[in-house]
Design goal:
The structure holds two protein chains of two kinds. In chain A, strands 2-1-3-4-8-7-9 form a seven-stranded mixed beta sheet, with helices on both faces. A two-stranded antiparallel ribbon of chain A has the order 5-6. By secondary structure, chain A is α/β, with parallel strands linked by helices. Chain B has two domains: 196 residues, Thiamin diphosphate (ThDP)-binding fold, Pyr/PP domains (Rossmann fold); 116 residues, Rossmann fold (3-Layer(aba) Sandwich), CATH 3.40.50.920. In chain B, the strands form three sheets. In chain B, strands 3-2-4-5-7-6-12 form a seven-stranded mixed beta sheet, with helices on both faces. In chain B, strands 9-11-10-13-14 form a five-stranded mixed beta sheet, with helices on both faces. In chain B, helix 3 runs parallel beside helix 4. In chain B, helix 9 links the parallel strand 10 and strand 11. The longest helix of chain B has 22 residues. The chains are: A alpha/beta, B alpha/beta. Chains A and B meet through strand 2, helix 4 and helix 6 of A and helix 3 and helix 4 of B.
């Protein structure tokens, strides 16, 4: 048993580099005893978290990062990484992050939250953190509904997606308002130099690249960086694999992927 | 080392900001609200130009402030700075105190040593901006929690200074969110105060809660507020309950006067107890056997002190600028006693919610209602 568990060091590193070239590696910053993760099958969060984990590994910032998460599905990541973590709710993750960064400017501070926390109940924090150019990285996972509470309409719900429990006839914009576009909104109020991007979970390498750029932006002390990750929620969308992918493609029409340094 | 004296004539809110400076606070987050705004303004002046901020006289680190977009930001950003190991604080009142309970609940759940200076407004909801004692329940037991908090109720400007300094050390020593509960009168009135330096022996050095372990074989600290098992959270609350009961013995404070021969005891707190003390002095000059007790900490209540004050007395008289927010806290403690000499004490109340209470009001009430 012990021989299998502890292979010689040089062999193990050979194995790692070999797997790197074929498949994305299992991030080193993962907390292994919390795997398998707690997210629903088919959820987009683990893809975002895996890409974030790889970005953290590549930037070698595991020991100086703090990972701050919000209520809702993102809180399932409270022990996802072997990285110091805490959790709040209602988008207050952003104030906690900026309070931490102001007290420890050398830390790499990541606020990780959903579209409800960032764009609805905690919107003011996102707006003012952008205006003040707080030197933190904010990652918003946009799955176009309130996942943890059972699939209610979110500020990001679009007409073309499967009905939500609180807009069972679809989001009729005349009655229920228009979907909110986070990155586009921040662009309008942002400060020159800020990094703002939207990427989606169906293109993990590009997603990793944007996350890495956002973190590097913070490490270079260039101010606020923001990535929206457009994501899947098959459990609440009630979609099979093909429909899930099709829904994400429709969502991309409404929420195009892009990146911008203002 | 003797504490350096510095006598001045200042406004209460200005004094509170100076106390935070003397206590070694470095980070402040706030949102203006009457009657607490001068704490924010004074701290901003103490920081000076943010491009070249002044340094803390205690830690020699640069001072910081942020005027936030709302009270939730103030509360949660304060939590963020505390997690990074800095003495951070905030101030608020009334409706702001309500919004900030969200952060205070989180601080209670994670045992974050936040410090909040609350200057109570009067009455219900928006109401008056002047004064009352109607934020006692909210400050002691607000939010979804069990009141694992420390609340100091100073009764004059000197105590506002001294207990604000103490609040920072208590918060970081025992890791509970800690409050100094003042009011509009204390915040806005001017008075003589000794802005002495902190006793270095009492200083509790803050330590980072996250990113504290920079070793190579670092084990991460994964904190959370959310649990899916009933038993899991029950165990944590049980632990906190035991911790709080243990720490209460060291934290709780009260003040008493003339208890030995007193037949009746006035119980009040904060600025009302200043008037009550004066009234008790006047009544005793007329031979009335009346005593005085006030809790300095509203959470936790000094139970041994309270029982000593009440045991065997004929009656206690609660005097409050609220409809019994203090008396509910105290009665709760008294009910936990099995001693009939405590449980049989008669209760009288003089409640004047949102009104100022003078020594004359109290002596008149006692003359009419106490034999």
């Amino acid at each position: 048993m012990s021989a299998r568990r502890r292979p010689p060091k040089n062999k193990s590193s050979q194995k790692n580099s070999a797997s790197n070239s074929v498949l994305p590696s299992f991030p080193k910053c993962y907390k292994k005893n919390s795997k398998p993760h707690k997210f629903c099958p088919g959820c987009g969060h683990p893809i975002v978290l895996k890409m974030l984990g790889q970005a953290i590994d590549e930037l070698k910032i595991q020991n100086k990062s703090v990972f701050l998460i919000d209520i809702g599905c993102s809180l399932l990541a409270w022990d996802f990484y072997n990285i110091d973590t805490t959790q709040t709710h209602h988008g207050r993750t952003i104030p906690v992050a900026l309070g931490f960064k102001r007290a420890n400017p050398e830390a790499v501070v990541i606020a990780y939250l959903g579209d409800g926390g960032a764009y609805s109940i905690g919107m003011q924090h996102l707006v003012h953190a952008t205006l003040r150019n707080e030197n933190i990285t904010t990652i918003v996972v946009n799955n176009m509904n309130y996942g943890m509470t059972g699939g209610q309409m979110a500020p990001t719900t679009i007409t073309e997606q499967p009905p939500t429990t609180t807009a069972p006839f679809g989001r009729k914009e005349k009655y229920l308002g228009t979907p909110l576009k986070g990155p586009e909104m921040l662009e309008k109020i942002g400060v020159p130099g800020q990094y703002i991007a939207r990427m989606s979970v169906d293109v993990p390498p590009q997603l990793k690249l944007t996350l890495k750029k956002a973190l590097q932006h913070q490490m270079d002390k260039k101010g606020f960086s923001f990535v929206e990750a457009l994501s899947y929620c098959p459990n609440n969308w009630k979609t099979n694999a093909a429909e899930t992918i099709a829904t994400l493609q429709k969502a991309k029409q409404e929420f195009p992927t892009y990146e911008k340094e203002l | 080392m003797p504490q350096k004296e510095n006598r001045q004539f200042l406004q209460g809110n200005v004094v509170a900001a100076h106390a935070a400076l003397a206590a070694g606070a470095t980070h402040f987050y706030g949102y203006p609200i009457t009657p607490s705004s001068e704490i924010l303004e004074t701290w901003v002046n103490l920081v000076g130009d943010p491009a070249k901020p002044n340094k803390s006289p205690v830690t020699k680190e640069p001072l910081q402030y942020l005027q936030c977009e709302d009270e939730m930001t103030s509360g949660f950003a304060m939590i963020g700075s505390c997690l990074a190991g800095k003495k951070a604080f905030t101030t608020t009142a009334g409706p702001g105190n309500i919004l900030m309970q969200d952060a205070f609940s989180a601080a209670e759940a994670l045992r974050i040593p936040t410090v909040a200076l609350i200057m109570q407004r009067g009455g219900l909801s928006t109401s008056t901006v002047i004064y009352s004692q109607e934020e006692v329940t909210l400050t002691c037991l607000g939010g979804n929690g069990e009141g694992f908090r420390v609340v100091y109720s100073p009764h004059n400007i000197q105590e506002l200074y001294d207990y604000t300094i103490k609040a920072f050390n208590t918060a970081w020593k025992y890791r509970y969110p800690t409050f100094v509960l003042g009011d509009g009168y204390q915040g806005k009135m001017h008075g003589e105060v000794n802005l002495h330096t902190m006793d270095p022996k009492s200083y509790v050095k803050p330590k980072p809660i996250l990113l504290s372990n920079k070793g190579k074989n670092k084990k991460s600290v994964n904190l959370r507020n959310c649990y899916d098992q009933e038993e899991e959270i029950y165990e944590i609350i049980e632990k906190y309950r035991k911790d709080f009961a243990r720490d209460s013995k060291k934290i709780a404070e009260s003040e008493s006067l003339f208890l030995d021969d007193a037949e009746s005891v006035i119980i009040s707190h904060g600025i009302v107890s200043t008037a009550a003390k004066e009234a008790v002095g006047r009544l005793r000059k007329h031979g009335q056997k009346i005593g005085f007790w006030r809790p300095i900490t509203l959470r936790p209540i000094d139970l041994p002190g309270l029982l000593k004050a009440v045991k065997g007395k004929k009656e206690i008289i609660y005097i409050e600028s609220a409809l019994g927010q203090l008396s509910r806290l105290i009665n709760d403690e008294l009910m936990s006693s099995n001693d009939n000499r405590v449980r049989n004490v008669r209760i009288k109340t003089m409640f004047k919610p949102a009104l100022g209470i003078s020594p004359r009001d109290i002596t008149d009430f006692i003359s009419k209602n106490v034999s």
